[in-house]
Design goal:
This protein has 171 residues and is an alpha+beta fold. The protein contains two helices and 13 strands; from the N terminus they run H-E-E-E-E-E-E-E-E-E-E-E-E-H-E. The longest helix is centred in the first third of the chain and has 24 residues.
Length: 171
């Protein structure tokens, strides 16, 4: 009598273990829970709270010519929408996260103007830093605080496209 009930229990356990195993290895397993916008004196940080580390396939400004920054994220579940904080920055128009290609989601950040940016993936969050720039006579000047920050950390990748940078020393 006990033999059939053991088989049922083992079958149920096998189904549960198989289901849990698939959820952990599914290609769409990373969940973006929340997107915060944190401005401060020399940069604006966009922080994505995630269930695990994000993998970036591509990042940059869209070729359409507008100041839209994009990040192609591998293995992100787009079925649940993250909570997006209210826009607290004057130069961020909109933030969207949605499906892109097979197995890829696209994070789009619509800006008022093209700005230098960096991004840093962490275990449970992904941080994008947007740096303010000043415009004088069709040229761009990096904020002195940002310039100092990058001089202190030479390994920080700075992404620029169609932006001419000059140091305050060059003026």
């Amino acid at each position: 009598m006990n033999h059939p009930s053991r088989i049922r229990v083992l079958a149920v356990l096998l189904v549960l273990l198989t289901t849990v195993g698939k959820a952990g290895t599914d290609s769409d397993s990373v969940v973006v829970k929340k997107i915060d916008i944190l401005p401060n004196s020399f940069k604006v940080s966009i922080v994505l709270e995630t269930s695990e580390a994000l993998s970036i396939q591509t990042a940059g400004y869209e070729e359409s010519g507008g100041p839209t920054l994009f990040f192609d994220l591998l293995g992100v579940d787009t079925s649940s929408r993250p909570v997006i904080a209210q826009m607290k920055s004057a130069f961020i128009k909109n933030i969207q996260l949605g499906p892109w290609d097979s197995g890829t989601a696209r994070l789009k950040i619509d800006l008022n103007e093209t700005v230098p940016f960096t991004y840093t993936p962490y275990k449970d969050r992904f941080v994008i830093d947007l740096f303010p720039i000043q415009r004088t006579q069709n040229r761009y000047i990096l904020d002195p605080e940002m310039e100092k920050l990058f001089q202190q950390n030479e390994k920080t990748p700075l992404h620029l496209r169609n932006i001419r940078i000059q140091s305050l020393r060059d003026r």
